[in-house]
Design a protein that fits this description.
This protein is of the alpha+beta class. Helices cover 43% and strands 27% of the residues.
Amino acid sequence: MTLKLQDMLQYEAVFDVSFFNFENSITAAYFADRDLNIVRANKNFKALFPNIEKFEGLNMLFLLDKLGLSQERIDEFSNTLTKETRVQIPDLKITVQSKVKTYSLLSTYTKNSSFSYLNGVQGQLIDRTSEYELHAQNQKLLDQNKESNALLTEKSEKLETIANRLAKYLSPQVYQSIFSDKIIDGQTYKRKNLTVFFSDIASFTDLSDTLEPERLAELINTYLSDMTEIAISNGGTIDKFIGDAIMVFFGDPESSGEEMDALRCLKMAFEMQEKIKSISRVWASKKGIPGGLNVRMGIASGYCTVGNFGSNQRLDYTALGSPVNMAARLETICPLGEVLMTQATANILSDKVKSEFFDDFNIKGFSKPVPVYKGIRLENIDAELETGLVHQSDSLELYIKKSSDIADVIRELRALEQEFSKKLSG
């Protein structure tokens, strides 16, 4: 007679050895027969059922019901195990000592050819409460971060919308200076050498009284848009619109030097007058305005005070000084379609702008007659105006006309350094 191995070893001893690792496991482990009747359970498994003393023979499905699982989840466990010989349910909510915990249930059929009574189902319940709590905390942080990012994006979009709206009320140079902190709130003023421009549409008051508001707005907005485009393309700072009047200055916030600032201003004025001729033809032929469009322009150069002027409630970044007043006065006496300038501006551009003496005028606010010149055309300038290098401080204003050969510029600056050092030390 041949003895089988399972007949040679004691039943309990085999179970003790086979179940040793489960008995000492930190998980809640069990072993059941193929009908899911409990054969062995470790102390952690038994701790889940404080009111049950004897586990052997109890059915696993009954115990799952005692743990509070729904019939749907119990059926899921049983059907999956039968069909696939193994089952994993990752998130069972089980109440242990009045506290809801999260467990994962893993179970599988076992097969042992030597010991038939080891053929059954073994499984374990793994406490993953801390893991799920940490995951929940991380998810909460992610949701909060997502919400914060959404709010930040919303606020950024609102700020961008406001900034884009604000840009329409400021010249590009002033707008950039504000958002780069170059212009600081408060009493910040500078003396700058500017070239100031004023223009005004002749008889516009009469025209505005005869046009409907919508049509008037269309005409003036089209005109100002065209003039603004020309001013910006030449580097001018648009100070303000006063009805149909325009004030532009060159030399602040950024300067290309006295001569270049004045030259760009005259170039802008001539381009505006050319554009106005085409606008005038449209106004006369298609807009029903027989006289078309005629604009007077005045330009003056000199030192002005620039900065934030106004009240605590509202500030205006602008320029004040006699050149501003002079440019405004010249505009009022300018012939239609012409450009008048001061002698100072004409002298600065004597080799680049063709001009002619217009007349001496007694201008309000100035004690002596003022010689006035009329701009004719630009002369002897490159197709593209070169911008020089400018350095300005409280004690020094330096303009380098030609920056293309930087080595020559540096040599000349070093020579000047030695020359002025001797004069200052002497």
